[in-house]
Amino acid sequence: MTTQVAPPPGGDQHRSGAIIAMAIFATLMSCAFVVLRMYTRLRLTRTKRTGWDDWTICLALIGTVIGTGLVVPEAHYGFGRHQYYLTAYQVHQFKKYTYGEWMQTFFTLMLTKVSVCLLLLRIHPSKKVKMPIQSLICFLLLSNVALSLLWAFQCIPMDAAWNATKRKTAKCFREDQIDRIIMCQASMFPSDDIELTSPLMQSVMSIISDFILAGFPIIVLFNVQMKRSKKIVICGLMGLGLIKAACCIVRTVIYWQTQHEDQSWVGLKNFMWRNMEVNIGIVAACVPTLLPLYELLRSKIRPPKKPRAQQPPSYELHPWPRAENNTAPLQEP
Fold first, then answer.
1. Please, where are the H alpha helices in the chain?
2. What pTM was estimated for this model as a whole?
3. Coil, helix or strand for 280?
4. pLDDT, tens digit, for every residue of 106-115?
5. Could you tell me if 248 and 152 are in contact, meaning their C-beta atoms sit under 8 angstroms apart?
């Protein structure tokens, strides 16, 4: 990282309002899709019951709401401004809330992927499908818990992570090691003479898991008794997770390219893609469950097909045909 000694070009610019607006919009979008998902489960499905996949995505939604709640004080204390113009106290507070917001990101991404796994188990709970999906769930839980612990205990005491005064005497990861934790590259608790291994490990693992979850429905639905067109639609909807994977790729590249002391300013692009990754993941996890709602709306919007004269539609309210030329109705035989 470099130390900025001269005023940045453009002066004291403020983008905190845009940061808050973007975070709130993305969170409201996620809330809307989760509410529609729960409505569809409770009112439009045959069982009218929710499952573990639904409650897991609700936990992910709570996570992103908490994240938005942390973004507001982040912006208040200088996120979206050059650090050159911030006081030491503002930098202190900004780093503290950023610390918590990253923790939320780890858990929300994990819960979203676990919800997709549980949804796949709900669609086709066969033994052949259970084992690989349950293994993936265990991997997601263990890897993300380990990552979160590494991030939480990057300094001892913990508050030295954002307190510059305490950091001078605390035991902390080096800056490059913290960067690798954010990139999810850590493999062990480091010391000064132990290098963290597996560059870009977690980012790669995250992207790979997104591709697996996008492609797994093809295997899951292969033997399910369902119309081929519906199978294609469900697989396509589950494939929306690839958009999340694309956001993860962009976010990783941007983070790697913006290593600078002025994180309250250069971190804006990374936050934008990280926020999209989290909320698009929630939306993509909900969309496949909204097919009954889509079919209901489609039946109400599209006009019914005109029935043939000799074959009255089954929903006709008059069961007995009327004779022509205003004659009396036919009697029951």
1. 16-39, 52-76, 88-123, 127-152, 164-167, 175-182, 201-220, 228-238, 241-257, 263-286, 291-301
2. 0.78
3. helix
4. 899 899 999 9
5. no
